[in-house]
Amino acid sequence: MSSTDPTSPPVLRVRQLGVTFDTYRGPVQVLSDVNFEIAAGEILGVVGESGAGKSMTGAAVIGLIDPPGRISSGTVELAGERIDQLQGEALRRIRGRRIGSIFQDPLTSLNPVYTVGRHLVETIRTHLPLTEAQAKARALELLEEVEIPEPRVRFGQYPHQFSGGMRQRVAIALALCAEPQLIIADEPTTALDVSVQAQIIALLRRVCRERGAAAMLITHDMGVIAETADRVMVMYQGRVLETGPVREVLDRPTEPYTRVLMAAIPSVHERLERLPVPEIGSSAPVEAAKVVPVARATRKTLVEVRDLGKEYDLSLGWLERVVSRQPRKLLQAVDGVGFKIRQGSTFGLVGESGSGKSTVARMVAGLTVPTRGQVLFDGEDRFQTQADLRRRIQMIFQDPYASLNPRWTVERLIAEPLEVLGLSQRPEETAERVAQALRRVRMKPDDARKYPHQFSGGQRQRIAIARALASQPEFIICDEPTSALDVSVQAQVLNLMRDLQQEFGLTYLLISHNLAVIRHMCDDIGVMQRGRLVEAGDAQEVLDAPQHEYTRVLMAAIPDIRHVH
Amino acid sequence: MSDVIPSPAPPRRGWRQSDSPVKRAFARSRTVQVASAVLLLIVLATLFAPLLAWQNPFDSGALELNDAFLPPWSEGINGAFYALGADDQGRDVASAILYGLRMSVLVGVSAVLLSLCIGIPLGLVAGYAGGWFDTLLMRVADVQLTFPVILVAMLILGIVRGVVPEGVREQVAVLVIILAIALSDWVQYARTVRGAVMVEKQKDYVLAAQLIGRSRTAILGRHILPNLLAPILVIAAISFAHAIVAESTLSYLGVGLPPTQPSLGTLIRIGQSFLFSGEWWILLFPSLVLLALALSVNLVGDWLRDALNPKLQ
User: Fold this and answer.
1) Do the beta carbons of residue B95 and residue B53 sit within 8 Å?
2) pLDDT band for position A528 (50/70/90)?
3) Which end of chain B is less congested by CB atoms within 10 angstroms, N or C?
């Protein structure tokens, strides 16, 4: 734990911090009464959902709040020295020199036209009085420190030659350049795959420990907090709900909100009937875990995928290829994938980015034509049959912001499949069915007149589900349906999907990188790696006793709130 | 990224619920009210030019040479009143502007509409279908972009002159210049639309439409096109002003409109030669009108782009 010396002040002390935005409608308080301290060598995890004020707290500490926002009350002290009133040059000297930052997206935080070495050398020389050669030596040391293989070769390379995880390592090296006392990491692993995430978490812990630097780790992922932080601060709507040692808060949360938030996170180890949905003020006890009756799924196979393969043509444009006489370049995105989905069951397809799982989903949906193999729906070949399968197969997409046309009203969005598929002849019938679809996803029929942007992410995802349900399909393909959503909203959407499945006997194909979501929802699963299906079978059996090496690696890499470090 | 969940919005004051969002946005912006008033004035002036002008400035019989170079706000020999002065031939500048404006607006509007009709469909198809059509179209566009607009227009004019018999040249001059400007302008619409389509077609709402078997035409026209309104409107507003200037440049070079069908550009060209000898009004007033026209079209275009975007309502 922290090596707190009673005589010296903590590295960071925030007292009664308040941030206000001056808007046309008057001042809006976005942070109020935030208090916390971080000692040297300690990692404070800051958790909360979107809009809870986590990132705002981090920005307030480094003085990066843009107008019309301003710090309206309280103090921020770095090693006993007030920094909240610093301006201009004085503030810039602290950023980078005494406070290092790591951001979410390693792709945009590095300048693509600079080599990695130049990023480091420039940052080092900005903060430390070193010569070019000394700075280069230090940069190489730092690259070694963040475990980048062959630092000398990597030094001269550009950011695009680095993978996401490697870029985030560079970002950590950059934050360490001037040996800062405090490191602020804002969602450092959110954009990364699970297995890479685990490595970055370990690295972050090690460098903070070794240097005795204080760290503030902002994330929405409780698992990451459990694996990394010493203490945790839970935020909700711009306030701190509770602060305490990580095991204490995660195991015995005092606030009802925190308690339900913990319970709302699906676990890889057990399958619950429903997830509790956190709401502030709800003091209802968390329901005891109920085991799902597995009897719903029938024996009948609804969807069968046989030896599915897809090649992508990555060649140059037609003209360039003809002129420079280059052969076509092909990428084997999906290779020999086969599985069966029983009627009324949920089949989960899990894998990391680039594993080809979304391509499989699109081929099953009929949006992408496979290079070889078959997709059989109810015994009929998806790409051969004359029968109209459009009504019976629907899809829910990952990003509820992109899957609804922003220029269309909700009514028009939901009515479109009805009209196109000829399921409704009269306008009154369409309106009635739109209202019905909205009621099914627990929304008001009045919402039909609004535009998608007037809803939150979770509501939009429910609108997308309503659109999918409008044509009364039997089979719904869900491509990462909750990965853009907060934990509590994810719980709502998963519960809704489960309810609808029971109500209408729906069959789901669920694509996700999140093993816990897969575990919670699925009866059978398939694990994909580099376009191939490496393991498939009963969800419980596969996840509890993985046979394939890759599945084991995936399982081990998941940050788990029950994990003790 | 923080996902701001709309808290119960405070009730909107002032506007009735029944009002359309576009009307509300109009009531809120002082700038667009002024700009559209100016635009309305200009449109009315072009429609009623023969009634408003006391002189037909391009009927040489109606001109009084003795009134040449009269400064603004002065009275001529025959008691005629020159509010904005007279030019070297005793032509009333105010009347000339009214007539010139007609021609400029006609050429500008038609040229923009025509290039929209060419550029948007080509851009939509190229962006959505890709492949050889896209490659071909973009190379043609690239080649055309390397030539100055004026040169392309002159080339087209030259060809038409060679084809059309002498007698009807004057009658078709306006049509030819509209065609010339439109054919040199469609490239920017095609390129912008193509780029925007390539971004939009990746979005999941397009997949959702494909899933229920919507045709390509329906996806392009009903789903994608409405999302391209913003860039198209901005370019249309800018290129409207641009078309007017291009027309005057062509007229200046002697390949544009004949002197019997003058435009604002023709007037500016005439005024230019008198600027340094002190007769500033001949140049200033037509230029000011051109400026007011271009500016108000741009402002109304920008406003329309925002007003039609449901996200900003």
Assistant:
1) yes
2) very high
3) N
**In total, how many domains does chain B have?**
1
Higher pLDDT pick, A370 / B64: A370
Of A318, A417, A420, the CB nearest to B132: A318
Q: What is the average per-residue pLDDT within A223-236?
A: 89
Which residue stretches of chain B have pLDDT < 70? 1-21, 259, 312-313
Q: Is A140 exposed, middle or buried (0-12, 13-18, 19+ CB in 10 A)?
A: middle
* Domain at B242, CATH number: 1.10.3720.10
DSSP string, B76-137: -TTS-EETT-B-TT--BHHHHHHHHHHHHHHHHHHHHHHHHHHHHHHHHHHHHH-HHHHHHH
Do the beta carbons of residue B87 and residue B274 sit within 8 Å?
A: yes
Contacts of B313 in chain A (CB under 8 A): 451
d(CA B252, CA B264): 11
Cα B310 from Cα A542, distance rounded (Å): 47
- The dotted CATH code for A1-91+215-254 is 3.40.50.300
Q: Is A398 on the interface with B (CB under 8 A)?
A: yes
What is this structure's pTM?
0.77
Phi first, then psi: give them for residue A113, nearest 5 degrees. Answer: -95, 0
From chain B, the residues in CB contact with A407 under 8 A are: 226-227, 229, 310
Coil, helix or strand for B270? helix
Alpha helices in A450-538 (DSSP H): 457-470, 487-504, 515-521
- With beta carbons less than 8 A apart as the criterion, state whether A249 and A232 touch: yes
pLDDT of residue A283: 43
Question: In the prediction, which pLDDT does A1 show?
Answer: 42
What is the C-alpha separation between A223 and A516, in angstroms, rounded?
Answer: 11
What's the CATH number for A294-557? 3.40.50.300
* ipTM for this model: 0.73
**Spatial separation of the C-alpha atoms in residues A241 and A393, rounded to whole Å:** 44
- CA distance, residue A545 to nearest chain B CA (Å): 36
